[in-house]
Amino acid sequence: MYGKAFAPEYQGALTALSVNSSLTDVLAAGTEQLRAAERAGQHGEAARSGLAVAEAHRRLGQVGDADRAWKASYRAARQAGDTAAMAWALWSGGTLARQRGAFALARRLLQLAAELGERGGDVVVRGYSLAGLAETGRIQGDYEAVHRLHEQLLAEARRRGEARHTVWALEGIAQIHRNTGSYDRAYALFEEAAEIAARADDRRGHAWALRGLADIVSVRDGDTERALALLSEAEATCRAMKLSSALAYNHKMRGNVLYRAGRYAAARALYEQALAEFRAMSEPRGEALSRLGLVKARARLGRDRAETTAELAELAEVLERIGLRHAREMVTRAQEELGAVEDAAQRAGAVAVR
């Protein structure tokens, strides 16, 4: 039903690159081809090789370079009169904007990309752009608005037999179910995504699916060791492909798993590591989620209650400003959880004194 996964963002002279190519290899090949195209005055080829450069920089967490590269790709595509290439550049820019927490800009760029993709007759960039819009809404916690779009895109991807896009859609829908408490459904979808990704040799998609499975195994089943094993398998792929963002989210999830298991010191170390990684790539969502985990772990390890309360209040403001509704709700739950834990400890202390 599904063929081998491919990377449609690697275009022109770079179509031989695999979806599993190391990002450092993609960056090197893309930069070489981009310079050759620019010297030859081939605007269309410069746009398409520049797209690969932009995506490699983005996934490596090199935000400034990625921003310059997608804009240069768009300018070259416009000079070439290549509407589809313009759409791909806007898709890359919109994806980068979402990664940086600029959700309004992300939606604007991705909507333009979808429109140009349709006008240029490129159904793939149209689908990827609509998927980007769906993911933006999902990350912000607007599940009702984007669930139907996820399902629509999943149906389109299945119909075309496009493994990579099918895996993405399955993982997005699974995450919505996980965040709304439907763990069994989420597990089934992550499992299907992992199976399709493995058969199609989509190592990136497989790594994200394993991370999702680890989360469910931890929160639903309390199976810490299996969850950690799944994350270790995913981490090996992230390191091999130089997937900086995915690796940071893997470390943050490992912190979550250890925290749920009551291993607070180990969780604290993982949250600190993830926080540093997200800060290095200017990814505010990952940074905020890592900070939240770190606050909770430190509180469990005896941090002053007033300091915990103050930082949670600050985090709530940050998430409100970014527009992350689901993460904001997580802060509220953390405030309730940690308040209840400390109140119980105080009552126990009072009983011991008496």
Automatic annotation (TrEMBL):
The family database entries (InterPro entries) matched by this protein are listed as: TPR-like_helical_dom_sf (IPR011990), TPR_rpt (IPR019734)
Cite a single Pfam family from the UniProt record: TPR_12
Q: What is this protein called?
A: MalT-like TPR region domain-containing protein
Q: Which organism is it from?
A: Streptomyces curacoi
